[in-house]
């Protein structure tokens, strides 16, 4: 099984709302690298299972869905937002809902689902480099990555970010509801036995609570530069 090919990988792991997706995209853009949004694969597995009428409580059946996932990520330019196509259907927006995130967190607790998606994630490692965002990028999927960053922020800050994001998209939700959902998801992602959310031993932990997107990007690029000198 291919793990390391000499192509550099920057891993960005952390809980929901810590800013991984945003920073992964900007980092990939700055470096001209490829991007892996591993959470999208868990979201797609959950959505596809639901669409096929598969019981999310049935680990074997959900793992079959993960193994046979017919998905394309269409990126026009490296670092630009990608369209996500599931069985020919554009589900870019549908997989981003909080409901889909919660279903993804449920199916992601199954070892058979994680195993089914492992090689698919490693196959994203292509020249000139890869920025990979998720929960276990530094611990399991790319253990040899030369640059690992664990992004965090307080649950309150993360709920506020989601609130602002959803408001901008015209959705009205209660911030207290988002905070509960975030805490529930943290709890499940951190406490599962298989590949739990945690920093790799050699990861730099970056608390983004008090930093802007630009400041976080600068820090990530600095950490990457320091790895090369
Ligand atoms: N450092 C930051 N400061 C303020 N807002 C941020 C920061 N990082 C991300 N955001 C915003 O928070 C929301 C969630 O960020 P996102 O990148 O989707 O997080 P994650 O991928 O970790 O769930 C987005 O609207 C994003 O623009
Ligand atoms: N590498 C990964 C990525 C996501 N997951 C699971 C756990 C998460 O709650 C869901 C959704 O992840 P995603 O990164 O898309 O969610 P956020 O953008 O952080 O809210 O999938 C995982 O277990 N391992």
UniProtKB/TrEMBL annotation:
Protein name, as recorded: Cytidylate kinase
Chain residues that bind ATP: 14-22
Source domain of life: Bacteria
Entry EC no(s): 2.7.4.25
Presence of the UniProt keyword S-adenosyl-L-methionine in the record: no
Record GO terms (molecular function): ATP binding; CMP kinase activity; dCMP kinase activity
NCBIfam families per record: cmk (TIGR00017)
Pfam families: Cytidylate_kin
Catalysed reaction, written as an equation: dCMP + ATP = dCDP + ADP; CMP + ATP = CDP + ADP
Cytidylate kinase domain location: 10-223
Matches recorded under CDD domains: CMPK
Record family assignment: Belongs to the cytidylate kinase family. Type 1 subfamily.
Location(s), subcellular: Cytoplasm
Keyword annotations from UniProtKB, A to Z: ATP-binding, Cytoplasm, Kinase, Nucleotide-binding, Transferase
Gene Ontology biological process terms, A to Z: nucleobase-containing small molecule interconversion; pyrimidine nucleotide metabolic process
InterPro entries xref list: Cytidylate_kin (IPR003136), Cytidylate_kinase_dom (IPR011994), P-loop_NTPase (IPR027417)
């Amino acid at each position: 099984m291919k793990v390391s090919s000499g192509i550099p990988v920057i891993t960005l792991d952390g809980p929901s709302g810590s800013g991984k997706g945003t920073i992964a995209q900007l980092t990939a853009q700055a470096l001209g690298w490829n991007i892996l949004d591993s959470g999208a694969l868990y979201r797609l597995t959950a959505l596809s299972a639901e669409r096929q009428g598969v019981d999310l409580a049935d680990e074997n059946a959900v793992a079959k869905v993960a193994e046979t996932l017919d998905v394309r990520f269409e990126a026009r330019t490296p670092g630009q937002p990608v369209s996500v196509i599931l069985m020919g259907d554009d589900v870019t927006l549908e997989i981003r809902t909080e409901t889909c995130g919660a279903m993804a967190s449920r199916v992601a607790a199954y070892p058979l689902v994680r195993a089914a998606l492992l090689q698919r994630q490693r196959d994203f490692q292509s020249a000139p480099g890869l920025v990979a965002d998720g929960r276990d990028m530094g611990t399991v999927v790319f253990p040899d990555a030369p640059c690992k960053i664990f992004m965090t922020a307080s649950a309150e800050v993360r709920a506020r970010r989601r609130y602002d994001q959803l408001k901008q998209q015209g959705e009205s939700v209660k911030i207290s509801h988002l905070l509960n959902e975030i805490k529930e998801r943290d709890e499940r992602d951190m406490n599962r036995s298989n590949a739990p959310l945690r920093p790799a031993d050699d990861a730099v932990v970056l608390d983004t609570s008090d930093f802007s997107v630009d400041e976080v990007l600068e820090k990530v690029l600095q950490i990457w530069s320091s790895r090369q000198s």
